## 1
Amino acid sequence: MNNYKHKLKLLSALLFVYIILFEFILEHNKFLPKPSILFESLFQIWKDYNLLSGILITAGIVYFSIVGSFILLWLLKNPIIKFFAKYSCGIEALQLFKSVPVFMLILIVSLWFDASESAKSVFIFLITFISLSRVLAKELSRTKKEYLEVAQNLNPEKLYAEVYWKSSLPSLLELAVRFQRVLWLIVLVYEFVSMSFGMGAIMRLALLYQDLSGIIIIGIIQVLLIWLGTVTLQFLKKKIAFWET
């Protein structure tokens, strides 16, 4: 809570400096528009760029991918954990995936499928699911010995679900909190490159029009959405997995 208060104070101070500096001192500059101009153009930009649809599409893909991947991983936890426990090559393959440049994958998928919304959704979902699976595989080796000793009489299915899965859950949710920020960037870049409709494509359009006010307003909205998503996911993490790894 104190961390959020500190960030809020810092944000308020920066906002105050911006208003004073660019509204009254540097009225005519090519770097940042006056705050009053931003406020006046907000509703026009919202309408002209169809921002609501862009927000719903981009945010929807980000959080559907996180929630959907988490549910799928939970449904398949027993066979997945069993596979990783038996075959170390699976873990090594997932670690190798981390080294693949995401931007290269974005370019390839964009060339293959153009601005396909389905391709974008599947691509983002797969990246999220593989990232969560990688953390699950990594956490299996970190399961505390005392947990395994207590559960040594359980059958394998119970061992996977009650010990390995629950031991990995805090780390999986922590990844969801951190990874959603990265996922926003991936989706925005994908939309920017492929012109698949969303906030990334809207930012490219604003750039083509050299609309500085539009770019800044869209950026502020994105920051607020990411912050709201972070707070929500952290709240869920505390409620769902409040124990230590």
## 2
Amino acid sequence: MYFSINTSYKDFMIFGYSKEELEKLGAIHTATEIDQQPRLWMETVRIVEELQDKIVEFLKNKVDKDTRIIFTGAGSSYHVGNTICPHINRIVNARVESIATTDIVSNPMDILEEDTKTILVSFARSGNSPESIGAFQICQNNIKNITHLVITCNKDGNLAKMASEHEENFVILLPEETNDLAFAMTSSFSCMFLTGLLFFDIEHIKENKKIVEIIAHQGTEILKNEWQNVKLLAESKPKRIIYLGSGCFRELASELALKNLELTNGKIATMQEAILAFRHGPKTFINDSTLIIVLNSLDDYTNLYIYDLIKEIHNDVGEQKIAVMSYLDDNKLADICDKYLTMKGTVVPEVYACLNYALYGQMLGLFNSILVGNTPDNPNPDGTVNRVVKGVILHDYNN
């Protein structure tokens, strides 16, 4: 490897905090799990490489133009599939969709196709969420030709165990460190995201490994050098945060908005929207204490619309703040926003750029959580929201 990545928080300050300070703040797990991601991306590539022959065989036997592939999960796990789905749909000769486990469980009659050959791709940190189990069982019992691909961070989870009972299924266990100890999904999100990309484009694993090496190097630099800029955004003390993007960045915006909402326990209201859809009502969410974060596209055509919207918001009456994440040096755009966060180095495909954009959003959620007086590792101590969802009663369904 031609770059180094911090491997132990014991030897390093993380985001300006010592280990002792993070423990006192109740943030040691969240901070560590954000900081370790570039290293775990390379470990994830290694795992997929070792499975290359089995993956090729699986795709050869299971995927054709008549196959329906459903990415599924709940919360951040759903956002994994939602964000990578358009890219996978372009490169795989099958029908690829992203449907939340919560929808499959509550409305299977609207979703399931009994006679369609289906692969259910379950993204799951713990593999113990009731909807993950429910979606697995409903599809297993109501689709004639069903295969499961489970990408999970927990070897002891129920989902991994259930899938392993049938030899036609495929289970990928990610590094143990991806099974976040903190409430918010960070390492788990990005490593499941990366696994999905690599799995369905296994023919180009060598080329994609080089891309991951690039983003891992860039991500290490972001975590080392950009946290101060992100902390300044948090220290502006926004009461509302809006994430805006287009294409895969619009879907990533949903995950970053959720991350901030979770980590602040709702003390900072968040929303997300597509660039052009924002004018159609959601723009009314802006007030003087709003921070608008734009995930800049890597496409010149799309960025014409992004520039127009940022210019409009910049010229609007009010004290709202605008921050832009971008891989592109754009002085024209930088001049009309309050903070322009630029990724240094090689420009990578948009869907891979999502991983480094996510680092900024995760860091912002962490800093906001600390500044509003929360403990990031457990931002909801009263237990009304849990790391693994509770309170769901699964009801039998047979079509």
## 3
Amino acid sequence: MAMSSLSSLQQRVISALVLAPIAIAALYFGGIFFMLFLAGAAAIMAYEWCRAGLESRLGLLTSIMAITVIAALAGLYALRPYESCLILLAGALLMLMVVWVTGQRNRLVSAFFGPFLIGIPVLSLMWLRDLPDIGFAIAFSLFLVIWATDIGAYFSGKTIGGPKIAPSISPNKTWAGLIGGMISAMAVAYLANHFLVKADVAPIAMMGLGAICAILAQVGDFFESAWKRHYGIKDASNLIPGHGGVMDRLDGVFLTAPLLAALMLIKNGTML
């Protein structure tokens, strides 16, 4: 049976069953395996960003963005986090120059912010995974919370329906879906801490963090929806049946991964 003949939900489930084990395996083994996984995702997202937001020299600009993010990712092993972010800045400035020279002066914002939008979440995920002893537990828990948010929001929104949050941006997102996603995220955050992370944190605080992550994950989703509407596209790409592109699948980490990395930096007193 062709994927196109299946419902959207069926396609989403099949794609998740194929991709989730790959992502979890890369996350579990960490190191070079997770880095390669993130590098591949970053390269695809660079293509998706440039394809939608830029007008010409797409191959060159995609290459610059992808190489920039991958270089910053590799730099985490030799540099401090802020120094890796300086690599993103250098790549953003180079993209800005190329876009200016090629006459795409109405696309300067897309050119400059693309490396940061893709790079900072990717660097955050890699940094979290490399935390001694708890890296896998922390990073996996974040993904579990985001997945719980997506699932809770999808089914509560479909079942309850009700008022839309921002129909001009994302017509299918409802307040019921947001609340359902938050409740699911809170429950999973509590369970993930109890069974995986085992941090000495009050359950209510962990559930609160889960709720914040759920809100930020959906803000990331809204941002990506607004970005796609601005450029007149339905999905970032059609790479993943039922989901769209890699950006469509990873928009939940755009804000949540940097938040969690910042909290861990503060908790550990780690110098940037």
